[in-house]
Amino acid sequence: MSSDRFGLEAGVDRQLEDAQDTRARLHWGPFAKIYRENETSAFKKRKVSKPDGSIDWIVLRPEFRQLLADLANGVIDGLIFYDLDRLVRQPRGLEDLIDIVEYVKRPVTGATGGRMNLINDSDRHMAHMMCVMALKSSEDTARLVARQHLSAAQNGLAQGRIAYGWIRKGERKGQLVPDEADVVVRIFQDFMSGESAYSIARSFNAEGIQPPAARTWSSTMVAKMLRNPHYAGMVSYAGKHRVQAATAGEAGLPDTYRTGLVHHRALDLYRSIPVQRHVERAVRELRDALAT
After folding, report:
1. C-alpha–C-alpha distance, residues 81 and 116, integer Å
2. Using the 8-state DSSP alphabet, how is residue 33 labeled?
3. Burial class, 31, CB count within 10 angstroms (exposed 0-12 / middle 13-18 / buried 19+)
4. Model confidence pLDDT, tens digit, residues 144-185
5. Within the chain, how many helices (H) and strands (E) appear?
6. What is the DSSP pairing of strand 108-110 with strand 79-81?
7. Are 103 and 72 in contact, with CB atoms under 8 Å apart?
8. Model pTM greater than 0.70?
9. Which residue of 131, 152, 165, 273 pairs with 157 in a disulfide if CB–CB is 3.0 to 4.6 A?
10. Using an 8 Å Cβ cutoff, are 83 and 114 in contact?
11. Do 82 and 38 touch, CB atoms closer than 8 A?
């Protein structure tokens, strides 16, 4: 599954049910392993550095790579996948799988569609064509979505997920959650006073403050909140901020969501820097400049 906004894995469970039906139809025994890739894209590539210093752009899918290794090493003696476009979206990944199937001669069959089996020559050829078509569809969608995001940013429209500090769904979506808003403001205040993201996270954990979506606070979580343009009432695209105040991206969102949570000095600071990897260094430099 490439998208599971609320982390419920309901789509994955439905796919597993269909795979179980196929297993029963084929009279296979119980599954030895189940490879779950919730919230994992089979399309988006990432830049990686290899041990020899060279650079490559690959789709990062640890579970898929483990699946290939298990199939090649005999840990599993076959595979049932939900649908080909859930299994692979890049020809490179399909070729890696087919290479192993041709070597180990084990069935790799789908639970939907034509129920192809990659052990068959004709199904492998069909899989090649389907993979190319799925890749084309993903690229078309990515281009359209990127253009929509650019247009929204140019018009100052708030978009994306509702951030920590506001109610994230329901009739009161976009309204302030006072306790969470206080935490956000405190993060910016403490950071501007010289605290690091690590020390802020450690203090919150010691005080028992509940984090947004994890058991404990981390420096990474704090740093992401410091970089979130919504807290300054701003929007961004491709790492660049639109300085003008954001407007409501969805009908009915209250002014508190559009204008941000952070007090004016932090907002001025936030508007003065671009989103960048080393946010602490940038904020520290700007703080020193404001003090002079």
Report:
1. 10
2. -
3. middle
4. 776 766 665 566 555 666 778 777 777 777 677 888 888 888
5. 11, 6
6. parallel
7. yes
8. no
9. 152
10. no
11. no
